[in-house]
């Protein structure tokens, strides 16, 4: 991964080139929707563009960028939930018989979306392959050990929800 | 937390490449003899596959960058024009003893100036995000709570301004009521934003 220097005079284009894929993935994960992800990505980079001349390197540049992007994406998700609920009311159920795998994936995604925010966010952040556990800890403002235990709790909750869905009598 | 919970955390770490070879071997040895942890390991793998995310090839990175730069440039130009217009107004006002229409224009310039000042403050706040000791969710919650407060403030301010224009009798019966109607419309807009901001805050939690 190319490293952008942590100085005050960081060039926006350089930052954009270095972080665009990772931050877009982060937006995609945290918003859970491609259109909201794109909007959040643009909004976040606009905020970065405005604030970059004032960035004094007190925190790591990557942490600073991830925090801005993650906050923007989470706000976009909170905004989107309303329109999404309105839209899905009209969406017909899938009829293809060979869509089982896709349905399972959808069930997992829906179960993740229904988790409490603090667990969902950890799971989603671990889904961004480029983020290390250290970066996730910095982003969330919690110790690295807590990140792992929160991931474990989230995974167990998710497994329970999926099991209840597949075997409601349990 | 039982011993399997500890191993399951190690399974997570192994799946994300955060374990050294020795610890990974210890996990493998445990997996060989523990059905619950094997199931958990399987679950981690399945979920990883189910939620794997490929970025679309169609993202036009340069177009997005240019759009961001374009919006930023337009904002800078707008702020510069407001600053120049405000300076001209001030000079004109001082030279002519602030007649009523100029006072009115100066009020408008003040409002736009206040908006620019808020945007400047927002950029300052963004620059300090790296030092923010709060966690991600707490920070987002505070952002949304601020947006809720702003909606309430803006609705109140616009409603009061509308009433003030009505009461002032400014160029009555044409301009004053028109301005009052504009402010009431803005107040109604901000009023409708309040429940939206509230529900966004609830959804974040």
Protein model, in words:
The complex is a heterodimer of chains A (170) and B (205). By secondary structure, chain A is mainly α. Chain A contains seven helices and no strands. Chain A has helices at 12-31, 34-51, 61-88, 100-113, 117-127, 133-140, 144-166. Chain A is globular. Chain B has 205 residues and is mostly helical. In chain B, helix 6 (136-168) runs antiparallel to helix 7. The longest helix of chain B has 36 residues, at 61-96. Chain B is elongated, with a radius of gyration of 29 Å. At the A-B interface, helix 1, helix 2, helix 3, helix 4 and helix 5 of A face helix 1, helix 3, helix 4, helix 5 and helix 6 of B.
Topology:
The complex is a heterodimer of chains A (170) and B (205).
Chain A: H1 12-31, H2 34-51, H3 61-88, H4 100-113, H5 117-127, H6 133-140, H7 144-166
Chain B: H1 3-15, H2 21-33, H3 35-50, H4 61-96, H5 100-127, H6 136-168, H7 175-204
In terms of DSSP E residues, the strand content of chain A is under 5%
Strand content of chain B: under 5%
Derived from helix and strand composition plus strand pairing, the structural class of chain B reads: mainly alpha
- Give a quick account of the main beta sheet of chain B: strands, pairing sense, barrel closure: none
Largest sheet composition of chain A:
none
**Extended strand count of chain B:** 0
**Biggest interface pair, counts:** A-B, 65 and 56 residues
The percentage helix of chain B is: over 70%
Q: How many E strands of chain A?
A: 0
- How are helices and strands ordered from N to C of chain A? HHHHHHH
Evaluate the radius of gyration of chain B: 29 Å
Spans of chain A with pLDDT under 50 lasting ≥5 residues? 84-95
SSE string of chain B, helices as H and strands as E:
HHHHHHH
* Gyration radius of chain A, rounded: 18 Å
Shape by Cα distribution of chain B: elongated
- Oligomer status: heterodimer
């Amino acid at each position: 991964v190319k490293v952008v220097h942590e100085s005050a005079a960081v060039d926006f284009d350089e930052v954009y080139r270095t972080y665009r894929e990772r931050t877009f993935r982060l937006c995609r994960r945290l918003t859970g929707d491609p259109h909201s992800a794109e909007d959040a990505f643009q909004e976040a980079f606009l905020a970065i563009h405005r604030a970059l001349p004032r960035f004094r390197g007190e925190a790591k540049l990557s942490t600073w960028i991830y925090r801005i992007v993650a906050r923007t994406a989470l706000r976009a998700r909170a905004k989107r939930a309303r329109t999404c609920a309105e839209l899905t009311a009209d969406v017909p159920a899938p009829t293809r018989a060979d869509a089982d795998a896709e349905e399972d994936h959808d069930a997992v995604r829906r179960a993740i979306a229904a988790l409490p925010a603090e667990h969902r966010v950890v799971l989603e952040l671990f889904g961004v392959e480029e983020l290390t556990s250290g970066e996730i800890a910095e982003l969330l403002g919690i110790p690295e050990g807590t990140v792992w235990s929160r991931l474990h709790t989230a995974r167990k909750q998710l497994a329970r929800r999926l099991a209840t869905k597949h075997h409601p009598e349990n | 937390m039982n011993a399997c919970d500890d191993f399951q955390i190690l399974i997570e770490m192994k799946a994300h490449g955060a374990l050294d070879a020795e610890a990974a071997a210890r996990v493998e040895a445990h997996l060989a003899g523990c059905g619950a942890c094997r199931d958990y390991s399987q679950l981690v793998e399945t979920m990883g596959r189910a939620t794997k995310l490929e970025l679309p090839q169609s993202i036009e990175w340069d177009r997005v960058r240019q759009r961001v730069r374009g919006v930023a440039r337009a904002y800078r130009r707008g702020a510069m024009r407001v600053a120049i217009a405000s300076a001209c107004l001030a000079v004109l006002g001082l030279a002519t003893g602030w007649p009523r229409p100029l006072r009115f224009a100066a009020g408008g310039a003040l409002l736009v100036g206040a908006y620019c000042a808020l945007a400047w403050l927002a950029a300052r706040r963004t620059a300090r995000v790296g030092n923010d000791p709060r966690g991600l969710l707490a920070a987002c919650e505070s952002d949304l709570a601020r947006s809720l407060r702003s909606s309430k403030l803006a609705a109140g301010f616009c409603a009061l301004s509308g009433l003030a224009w009505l009461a002032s009798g400014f160029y009555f019966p044409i301009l004053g009521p028109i301005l009052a109607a504009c402010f009431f419309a803005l107040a109604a807009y901000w009023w409708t934003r309040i429940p939206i901001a509230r529900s966004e805050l609830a959804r974040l939690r």
